[in-house]
């Protein structure tokens, strides 16, 4: 059978749901298609389960930093209870609630099955019963299919049955020995979580430092925190081969420096690949398996007639759930405007364009200590030609609220200032509890608040947010030509 909708959305994760919600609010008919669980990677194998595993670990660490409170806890974390908490947050991998939200809450049609483009504005769905359903789109098709963890093509990898983020977040058994490969967010967070749950964790990083895309001091703090917690951290090494005869028993991990490690499980957190290999891109002249290049309204380049959009991981602009949802909101605004014949606001920060992906991308990693940043690093700002000033603050030494938060608080903050425009270009925090500081920095960047106006944003005493006052004082008291 063939049905027609204004908008067809491939992927029912957070990004696809945001597209559907905005388009329905604009009185457009919407069909949403997913071949797995409604809610996507984030809900069941990403952000939600990982943070539910990490929160108990970080909570215990925070308590242990406070004299008088640390005496109230003893013994290891109850891993089975943590797994039970995780299972509640992922609704035991039952997506009926999110499916009901799409159907009843949004008034959209939900199709379950494998969707492929079948030429311009057409999508063919193969259902679980092998039925074929064909949908036509009057206005737009939105690709919100996300990405999949990359596994390296090295000898022995298939037999070793390595973990990716999926097994790392849905497992309910603590491996005695776990090797984590990867210096990015998934690697450091999962090393934090599984070490806290009782595994002996070894973290392997190909790069010289952890979290290499952030300011250098962040990786130093996170590496030190992991080491103090008992994680064995190795940088500048790569895995060359794996051995697990018969696919059971311990895994032997061969490294390029000639060393061998023994583990009960190995987790690869080395990157992501787009879920675009089998969605019919070849039927419209695009390359299967590619990241989709888009303009600032998320229209896919190289496709005529302004009907194909890509949001979230599929367009590779920012592989973060919150950024994908932001893209979905802006793109849905553009879809609705085009559908109703309205002009687009295409200037930066306009209603119909994605601007923050270039200037104000926030990211937080729930390690111990936490790490967060928004905007540009010093290196990135200099590379783009900005005349900058780097402002650094030791949070433990200068922020009374930090000292109140934890005895012996250790943390660092950096603000990158554009000297020609007197605006903040980037902010980075590392330290316990800094995740909740980040939105204030994001607002400062997105609103392009002048430095002299930030002086009038008064932080409460004694809170960690007083770091803003310390940053402004440091900016005032040090020469611009540092």
Descriptive tags:
flavoprotein, 3 domains, flavin adenine dinucleotide binding, seven-stranded mixed sheet, 32% helix, alpha/beta, five-stranded antiparallel sheet, 482 residues, NAD, FAD/NAD(P)-binding domain
Task: Summarize it.
Pfam families: Pyr_redox_2 (PF07992), Pyr_redox_dim (PF02852). The protein is α/β, with parallel strands linked by helices.
Specify the oligomeric state: single chain
Q: What's the helical proportion of residues?
A: 25-40%
- Shape label: globular
Task: Compute the separation of the termini in Å.
Answer: 69 Å
Q: Number of DSSP strands?
A: 21
The average pLDDT value, as a whole number, equals 97
- Under the CATH scheme, the architecture of the largest domain is 3-Layer(bba) Sandwich
Protein name: Oxidoreductase
Keywords: FAD, Flavoprotein, NAD, Nucleotide-binding
Binding site for NAD(+): 182-189, 271
Binding site for FAD: 51, 145-147, 313
Write the layout of secondary structure elements.
Blueprint: E1 2-10, H1 14-25, E2 30-34, H2 40-45, H3 47-64, H4 79-89, H5 96-105, E3 109-112, E4 114-117, E5 122-126, E6 132-143, E7 147-149, H6 157-160, H7 165-170, E8 177-181, H8 185-196, E9 200-205, H9 216-229, E10 232-235, E11 239-243, E12 251-255, E13 260-263, E14 265-268, E15 272-274, E16 308-310, H10 321-339, H11 356-359, E17 362-365, E18 370-375, H12 378-383, E19 388-394, H13 395-398, H14 400-405, E20 412-418, E21 423-431, H15 438-446, H16 451-454, H17 467-477
Parallel strand pairs: 1-2, 1-6, 2-3, 6-16, 8-9, 8-14, 9-10
Antiparallel strand pairs: 4-5, 5-6, 7-15, 11-12, 12-13, 17-18, 18-21, 19-20, 20-21
Helix pairs in contact: 1-10, 3-4, 3-8
């Amino acid at each position: 059978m063939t049905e027609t909708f204004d908008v067809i959305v491939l992927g029912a994760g957070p990004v696809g749901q945001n597209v559907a919600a905005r388009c329905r609010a604009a009185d457009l008919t919407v069909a949403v298609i997913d071949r797995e669980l409604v809610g996507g990677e984030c809900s069941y194998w990403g952000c939600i389960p990982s943070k539910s595993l990490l929160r108990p670990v970080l909570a215990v660490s925070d308590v242990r930093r406070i004299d008088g409170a640390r005496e109230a806890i003893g013994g290891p974390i109850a891993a089975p209870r943590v797994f039970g908490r995780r299972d509640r947050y992922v609704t035991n991998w039952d997506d009926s609630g999110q499916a009901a939200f799409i159907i009843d809450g949004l008034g959209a049609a939900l199709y379950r099955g494998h969707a492929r483009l079948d030429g311009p504005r057409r999508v063919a769905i193969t259902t679980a019963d092998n039925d074929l359903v064909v949908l036509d789109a009057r206005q737009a098709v939105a690709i919100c299919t996300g990405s999949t963890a990359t596994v390296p093509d090295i000898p022995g990898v298939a037999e070793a049955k390595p973990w990716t983020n999926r097994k790392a977040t849905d497992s309910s058994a603590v491996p005695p020995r776990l090797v984590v490969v990867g210096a990015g967010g998934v690697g450091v967070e999962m090393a934090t979580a599984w070490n806290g749950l009782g595994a002996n964790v070894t973290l392997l990083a190909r790069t010289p430092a952890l979290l290499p895309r952030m300011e250098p001091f962040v990786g130093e703090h996170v590496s030190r925190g992991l080491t103090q917690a008992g994680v064995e951290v190795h940088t500048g090494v790569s895995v060359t081969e794996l051995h697990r005869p018969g696919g059971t028993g311990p895994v032997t991990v061969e490294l390029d420096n000639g060393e061998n490690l023994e583990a009960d499980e190995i987790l690869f957190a080395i990157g992501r690949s787009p879920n675009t290999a089998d969605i019919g891109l070849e039927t419209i002249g695009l390359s299967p398996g590619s990241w989709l290049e888009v303009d600032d309204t998320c229209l896919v380049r190289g496709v005529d007639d302004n009907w194909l959009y890509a949001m979230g991981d599929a367009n590779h602009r920012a592989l973060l759930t919150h950024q994908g949802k932001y893209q979905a909101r802006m793109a849905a605004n553009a879809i609705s405007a085009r559908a109703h014949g309205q002009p687009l606001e295409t200037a930066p920060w306009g209603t119909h364009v994605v601007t923050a992906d270039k200037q104000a991308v926030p990211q937080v990693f729930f390690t111990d200590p936490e790490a967060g940043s928004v905007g540009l690093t010093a290196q990135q700002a200099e590379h783009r030609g900005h005349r900058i000033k780097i402002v650094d603050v030791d949070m433990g030494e200068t922020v009374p609220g930090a000292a109140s938060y934890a005895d012996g608080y250790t943390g660092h903050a950096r603000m990158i200032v554009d000297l020609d425009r007197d605006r903040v270009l980037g902010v980075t925090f590392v330290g316990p509890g800094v995740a909740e500081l980040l939105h204030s920095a994001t607002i400062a960047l997105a609103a392009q608040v002048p430095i002299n106006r930030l002086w009038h944003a008064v932080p409460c005493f004694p809170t960690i947010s007083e770091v803003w006052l310390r940053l402004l004082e440091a900016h005032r008291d040090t020469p611009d030509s540092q």
